[in-house]
Amino acid sequence: MTQTASIFLSLSIALLAGLLLSRLAKIVKLPAVTAYLISGVLIGPFVLGALGIPGIGITSKQIEGFGLISDLALGFIAFSMGNEFRLSQLKKIGKQATVIGVLQALITTVVVDIALIALHFAMPNTLSIPAAIVLASVATATAPAATLMVVKQYKAKGPVTDVLLPVVALDDAVGLVVFAISFGIARSMGTAGVRPLAIILEPLIEIVLSLLLGFVMGLLFTLCEKYFHSRSKRMAVSVTFVMMTVAISSLKFEVGGIHIAFSSLLACMMLGTVFCNICEVSEELMDRADRWTTPVLILFFVISGAELDLSVFAQWTVVVVGIVYIFARSLGKYYGANISARMTKSDPNIVKYLGITLLPQAGVALGMAIKAIELGPDGAIVRNITLFAVLIYEIVGPFLTKIALTKAGDIKEEGRRSAREEHLSKKVQK
């Protein structure tokens, strides 16, 4: 079998597996994103992929070639998140979302710091203080992709959803800053001759440059869109600018000993934010973009499931530290959101349920964990704990998000019909 045939076969298997398992998930009332992740685990290198039979599963080698899909999917997810930063919406909840987003992230960091430093004294040979500090900063990150998929699948709408989406979007920026500071402290504790200032400055420069890139691309996108009038061509322009922003965001270079890089998540989010606020027809284009990207997003989650490393369960120390991390982070997210929502005099449902919807964790956290590898042995434990937590959170988190939004009244199950049922009903009426 040729390499091209192998790639297309693997992608078709991933897409079909995700779609089939989502039907089963609907019967047991699980979110589709959970089904996509589980299907990825089942066809991945630790289950069916381990058989090495073409057309049955996906191997580790095949997964390595799917990075392009993941990058593109994350770009469109971030682009969609930008839609939550419309000035008309921010005037209503901007201050509220900012206070909650920043405060819950800081509270989570402190809670996880306390729990893991305490664990260090119980297991000094397993978990060092630098590793504990870095892990606590990783805990700030939330998974925008999983959250957004749940919101879209169930057409969630209400006070909790209105605050949730901008808070999740803010988590990336806050998380990067907290991680930068924590990573700098950890490296200065473990290595002589390290430049803490450079370590702290690099992520801050990354945030500023990423937002600036997204701003410029948003202006160019809006200008270019005016020259095309058909829906298909304007849709093509949307895809072009998201892909272009992702491509530019992959650039890395060095200036005066400082490593310069971009965050595609922040850049694409700013692209969507600028476009939504200055383009008169942005709502229509954003809606069409969401429809076009559905297969890409399904593939992204299936591949994410296949990438989850099940071997972390074989290390009992990782399991112990991972359980403490998950418990502490969950407490931090819930009570952090609860306290900050009370401070802003938010709706009672926001106070009660927002923290639960912030539990999913994936992409950004894994990116931080990869960066933490530079800490050596401490970085390895950070990576393994993060992998363990992501495995649990990504499967359980979307389900808990659905429950929380349902209890808050943002998801209404009654009377919902599938697109197929609605189409057949219209045919009968004719």
Tell me what the structure shows.
It is built from 18 helices and two strands. It has 430 residues and is mainly α. The protein has two domains: 63 residues, no CATH class; 338 residues, Na+/H+ antiporter like fold (Up-down Bundle), CATH 1.20.1530. Strands 1-2 form a two-stranded antiparallel ribbon.
Give the SSE map.
Blueprint: H1 3-27, H2 32-43, H3 60-64, H4 67-81, H5 87-122, H6 129-138, H7 144-153, H8 159-190, H9 196-225, H10 231-249, E1 252-255, E2 258-261, H11 264-278, H12 282-292, H13 294-307, H14 316-343, H15 348-357, H16 363-372, H17 377-407, H18 419-429
Antiparallel strand pairs: 1-2
Number of helices: 18
Termini Cα gap? 49 Å
How would you write the strand order of the largest sheet? 1-2
Tally of structural domains: 2
CATH topology annotation of the largest domain: Na+/H+ antiporter like fold
Q: Please report the total strand number as a whole number.
A: 2
- CATH architectural type of the largest domain: Up-down Bundle
Biggest sheet character: 2 strands, antiparallel
How confident overall, as mean pLDDT? Answer: 81
How would you summarize what this structure contains?
The chain has helices spanning 3-27, 32-43, 60-64, 67-81, 87-122, 129-138, 144-153, 159-190, 196-225, 231-249, 264-278, 282-292, 294-307, 316-343, 348-357, 363-372, 377-407, 419-429, and strands at residues 252-255, 258-261. The protein is mainly alpha-helical.
